[in-house]
Amino acid sequence: xxLFTACGVALGLVLFLAGVRLxxxxxxxxxxxxxxxxxxxxxxxxxxxxxxxxxxxxxxQSSTVTTTLVVTLVDTRLLGLRKAVEIIMGANIGxxxxxQMLAVNVHRYAPLVVAGGAGVLCSSKSEPGRNSxxxxxxxxxxxxxxxxxxxATSPLVETAAFSxxxxxxxxxxxxxxxxxxxxxxxxxxxxxxITVVATACTHGRLSLVDAIPVxxxxxxxxxxxxxxxxAWSGVQARRAALAHLIFNVVTSLLFLxxxxxxxxxxxxxxxxxxxxxxxxxxxxxxxxxxLFMPVVxxxxxxxxxxxxxx
Length: 310
What we know:
Layout: H1 2-26, H2 28-41, H3 46-60, H4 63-75, H5 81-94, H6 96-103, H7 110-123, H8 127-153, H9 160-171, H10 173-187, H11 190-202, H12 208-221, H13 223-230, H14 235-255, H15 259-267, H16 273-292, H17 296-306
Helix pairs in contact: 1-8, 3-5, 4-5, 4-13, 4-14, 5-14, 5-16, 6-16, 7-8, 8-11, 9-10, 10-11, 10-12, 11-12, 11-16, 12-14, 12-15, 12-16, 13-14, 14-16, 14-17, 15-16
């Protein structure tokens, strides 16, 4: 059983990462030119930066890619620190789109999307057309990968060993938080972590209350790549990466003490267990962003004190 699960998860990860790579390749022209131009020209209110971060991340299906690009642009002075912080907050909301779509069984149509994308890629004579095919294939493969991971971990969550792990997580939310952070940092994807959590909840092996700390930890785990990208960069880049970490840690610390009440609210949003996990992920990120939006200016000043110019 464990060999089946390991092989299934490995196959799912290959499909997921290949999908992300195809999406990035298909959107290469946009991310290198169009998105950078949009980021540089964005001078509107805070909500504009948050919205842009949400939309970009929902399209490219990776908050890690968005945050790393923002860190790069800040380091080259093409983007201001305040606007970078706003976009990073929006990226946290955009990344919830994947789990929301998985919760409503979009993966059922994933093979058709892959086939359609392959047809467009092979038949198109123009580069924009081939890029569209790559994006379609990538989106389909991404959801196929998440479905394979969910199917492969289903037998595992029925075992006594998993029940023991779930019991430990239930007794110690901090362990669940740490486990979600580490797993996400290793896999470079909160979507994969939350897919496993949703599978466990669907099979009744993990309650929504116990899943919420893991979801919060997954948010923190996504900071690892941006922190590494900024390690040898300039002061502004380090400030932007630190903003991502502080934002996720602070919002998690605010919500952890009220996890039970939060779970109670989320459980009323839908009768679907997978939907409740997806909604918990979305509501947590939306509420955290709304809490930070009024104090973005103060937050930026704090970052400048924590990482001085000297």
